[in-house]
Specification:
The complex is a heterodimer of chains A (about 200) and B (about 525).
Chain A (H helix, E strand, L loop, with lengths): L1 H42 L1 H16 L2 H12 L3 H6 L4 H30 L3 H4 L2 H15 L11 H11 L3 H35 L3
Chain B lengths: L1 H13 L5 H14 L8 H8 L1 E6 L2 E2 L3 E4 L2 E3 L1 H13 L2 E6 L5 H6 L5 E2 L7 H4 L3 E17 L7 H4 L3 E5 L5 H6 L3 E5 L2 H10 L5 E4 H9 L5 H4 L2 E16 L4 H18 L1 H8 L5 H10 L5 E2 L2 E2 L18 H15 L6 H4 L1 H36 L4 H15 L3 H15 L4 H30 L6 H7 L1 H14 L11 H12 L3 H31 L2
Parallel strand pairs in B: 1-5, 1-6, 8-9
Antiparallel strand pairs in B: 2-3, 3-4, 6-11, 7-10, 7-11, 12-13
Classes of the chains: A mainly alpha (about 200), B alpha/beta (about 525).
């Protein structure tokens, strides 16, 4: 019994690494696109208008819908499937989350830039915990990948759940997995709160 | 002498044959006698060329496979058998489910013998040889421990299906959530790796690859047949203009192969299920099946009618599609407007999506106020409880919350799509309402004391607005537990129509417009309410 629980926990944690990996790649993609967009936004004129319109579009796109649309366009593209040995569902999930991360990274970078211009360096440095907060949101959002077959912690939980015939045991299993996420993100939120408090206290 | 020869020829050609084999041979001889100077039919062309070109599958286990520079399988052996009966050599060309009809119509091949189901829709473009040579239902395969007795057990569950298979509509009608795969090998890999819990395809393919004695042990030990439906006959296809020559001869040869048991033997040699072939052999052994040197109509199976009846606007939509193709060079299809079932699903999807967005926004606001009240309660114990609840809903992945909600509800009452929509509305409201309530509490902490709840909500309008926009963006996630919203129904329509570009463009535009509407309306409302503070 205890061994079965350990195996389950090990499998879950191993699958949770996929969520972390997807979160990291999505944040990286968001930084790659978000910072140049911020540069265009602070430049003013027509580059600002174009980049703001682009970011508005990114903000309005539901990641779940984009994920399905991309999955259908990419996974049936003969070129993509023949020329790249890729895990298409994972790649699609990362791109879909990048759409969200690009918009929020750009917003955070613009705020940071404004503070920097006003020589409020402590406030400007708040972009670091903000990026970390975006990362945690991305890890949490990566659970939507279970809908297209990404083998993450949520997918692992649902897979094990379907093997259990008893409805009550299923509820306990999913509740257990949810509590793991709640604990994980609560600790991170608390840590972030402490960092933000310290940085804010340095503001003149 | 000439008169004698002519009389002999006429007596041969008009003679009533006793068997299908004789009748076929008579027709072949008649065509041969016409000579090769100007072959005037497909059959004459084949006989004069001394070769017949078959389009066959190259990746369909036991039926048509290409390995070690050679084709093998039941259909491959059948191709050689047919060529032998015609007295010519068989040339084999690989085709796929997507290009087999196109290659036939382009005259790149003479015959399609490639796991092609005989349907009423295909009858319009291809002539199918009857009697059919095989029949296979659609089968659902799943883990051995999973209890699936019928359609009611499949409702709300995920099944991976092949793209463009019309049987998929049956899944949508029973509220099964579909994941689409374009190639059977990828779908089987996904089953092996756990990305698909259950898969559905032609029984023949799944028998050979997943749960039959010939399947890989790692799969056959874990998976079994759960459900089969829609038995569809498979037919050999020729061009319409070859119907009266090559079509007739192949029909007679097929009837003979059934009657003699040659097809059964061939199927046995490839370890295929012979149920359908045994029935056909019994049927065609009846003397009444030979009618004026042809196979009698009553001994021939009908095409499967799997087509979606057209909508009233279908002709206009088709005209528009053609106009786009001719004038703009765009090949776009609108299956959600052409077929009746698809159109009904489409309208339902739009309605449910709008309901989900409106419901999620409403529950987000209601729960935000409720959580704010809990967090601001006079009693410490209630505030602690409020904090735990808010932390729980703020930090839970939405998918897990949906599954949890779905499990709790289906523990008490049977699953239905309406229930899935209600669960999704409540769960999305709880998830985003927790953020809204928490923001209101933070706003109350930095505001002067004694403000009423509405004023605090207006002060926290930016965060509340973000919560309702997020609720609108999260609404398509309801598809995960089987709510028939637009994403789910368009996925279903894609699964049986095969069209995906227009479908997903429409879906993206719909949700972009919907979210943007929520952004604009909530912005106006927030601005108007701020003026009153």
């Amino acid at each position: 019994m205890f061994e079965a629980f350990l195996n389950l926990a090990a499998g879950f944690l191993s699958a949770f690494l996929i969520n972390i990996e997807v979160g990291l790649y999505s944040l990286f993609g968001g930084i790659l696109l978000g910072f140049p967009l911020t540069w265009l936004r602070v430049k003013g004129g027509w580059p600002k208008k174009v980049s703001e319109a682009f970011i508005t579009l990114l903000r309005a796109f539901p990641a779940f819908v984009l994920m399905f649309a991309l999955l259908n366009f990419l996974s049936y593209s003969a070129y993509v499937t023949q020329h790249f040995n890729l895990n298409i569902p994972k790649m699609v999930l990362i791109i879909a989350l990048c759409v969200y991360s690009t918009a929020v990274v750009s917003d955070a970078a613009q705020d940071s830039w404004n503070y920097w211009q006003r020589a409020d360096y402590a406030q400007a440095l708040l972009i670091i915990p903000t990026l970390f907060r975006i990362f945690t949101i991305l890890v949490m959002s990566s659970s939507i990948g279970a809908a297209i077959g990404v083998q993450d912690a949520v997918s692992f939980t649902i897979g094990r759940m379907e093997e259990i015939p008893d409805a009550l045991s299923r509820i306990w299993l999913v509740l257990g997995a949810t509590i793991f996420f709640v604990m994980f993100f609560s600790i991170i939120r608390f840590a972030l709160y402490q960092i933000v408090q310290r940085l804010s206290s340095k503001t003149p | 002498m000439a008169v004698l020869l002519l009389t002999t020829f006429l007596s041969v050609s008009n003679a009533s044959a006793d068997t299908f084999a004789q009748a076929a041979q008579q027709k072949i001889e008649e065509t041969r006698k016409a000579g090769c100077e100007k072959p005037d039919s497909s059959l004459a062309d084949i006989l004069c060329r001394q070769t017949i070109r078959f389009g066959v599958r190259a990746n369909y286990r036991l039926f048509g496979e290409f390995a070690n520079k050679e084709f093998k399988g039941f259909e491959i052996d059948l191709s050689h058998l047919l060529a032998k009966r015609l007295g010519v050599k068989a040339e084999l060309f690989p085709v796929t489910a997507a290009d087999r009809i196109e290659k036939l119509l382009d005259r790149q091949i003479d015959v399609v013998l490639a796991t092609m189901a005989h349907t009423v829709a295909r009858d319009a473009v291809v002539h199918f040889i009857r009697p059919h040579y095989y029949s296979s239902p659609t089968t659902v395969v799943g883990p051995k421990g999973l209890n699936i007795q019928g359609w009611e057990d499949l409702a709300g569950k995920s099944v991976c299906v092949p793209l463009g298979n019309f049987s998929n509509i049956v899944f949508s009608q029973h509220s099964v959530r579909l994941l689409i795969y374009d190639r059977p090998d990828r779908m089987i890999d996904a089953l092996r790796m756990g990305a698909c819990g259950m898969i559905a395809h032609d029984r023949s393919l799944l028998l050979a690859n997943v749960f039959g004695p010939m399947a890989a042990k790692d799969l056959s030990n874990r998976f079994e047949e759960k459900l089969s439906f829609n038995d569809v006959p498979w037919g050999i296809g020729v061009r319409k203009d070859a119907k009266d020559d090559l079509g007739v001869v192949l029909s007679l040869i097929m009837a003979d192969l059934h009657q003699s048991g040659a097809l059964q033997n061939l199927a046995r040699a490839h370890q295929l299920d012979i149920g359908f072939l045994s029935e056909q052999r019994k049927l065609l052994s009846n003397a009444k099946c030979m009618d004026k040197n042809l196979v009698a109509q009553e001994c021939l199976g009908a095409a499967a009618d799997l087509s979606d009846p057209p909508t009233i606007i279908a002709p206009s939509v088709n005209l528009f599609e053609n106009w786009l193709h001719t004038h703009a060079g765009l090949t776009l299809k609108f299956p959600m407007l052409v077929g009746e079932s698809a159109a009904k699903l489409f309208v339902l999807g739009i309605f449910v999506s709008l309901l989900l967005v409106a419901g999620s926004i409403l529950t987000t606001l209601v729960f935000a106020f409720l959580f704010f009240k809990l967090l601001s309660a006079r009693f410490f114990i209630v505030r602690i409880f409020g904090n735990i609840v808010v932390q729980f809903f703020q930090n839970s992945p939405i998918i897990l919350l949906l599954v949890l909600g779905y499990l709790i509800i289906t523990f008490m009452t049977p699953y239905s799509p309406i229930l899935a929509v209600l669960v999704a509305i409540v769960v999305i409201g709880l998830n985003n309402g927790a953020n809204g309530g928490s923001s209101m509490k933070e706003s109350a902490m930095v505001s002067e004391k004694g403000l009423n709840t509405l004023t605090i909500a207006i002060k926290a309008n930016i965060q509340l607005r973000a919560a309702i926009i997020n609720a609108a963006k999260a609404s398509p996630v309801a598809a995960f537990i089987g709510a028939p919203e637009l994403l789910a129904v368009l996925t279903d329509i894609t699964s049986f129509s095969g069209e995906r570009i227009t479908t997903y463009v429409i879906l993206s535009i719909f949700y972009l417009a919907l979210v943007q509407t929520v952004v604009i309306l909530s912005g106006r409302l927030a601005a108007r309410m701020s003026q009153h503070v």
